[in-house]
Fold:
Amino acid sequence: MDGILPGSYLAAAIDVEPYRLTGDTELMERVRAAAVGVDIHEGDTRLTLRVLRLRSFVQGPAEPALR
Structure:
């Protein structure tokens, strides 16, 4: 990823689109608990993540509805 401002962040790798979690506080808490803290500085930052598998817990359409 490029263009991230320096600072402290939580990073998580998930197997669903992030917008599908916005209405489910329980799943968001799972992501937060599994997230890894990372400090971004000038230059490259290396980070290794394990994928948190949430697809089987997510309900609803795979694509956002068009209006």
Observations:
- The chain has one domain: 7-57.
- The beta strands are 7-11, 13-14, 36-40, 51-52.
- The longest strand covers residues 7-11.
- The radius of gyration is 14 Å.
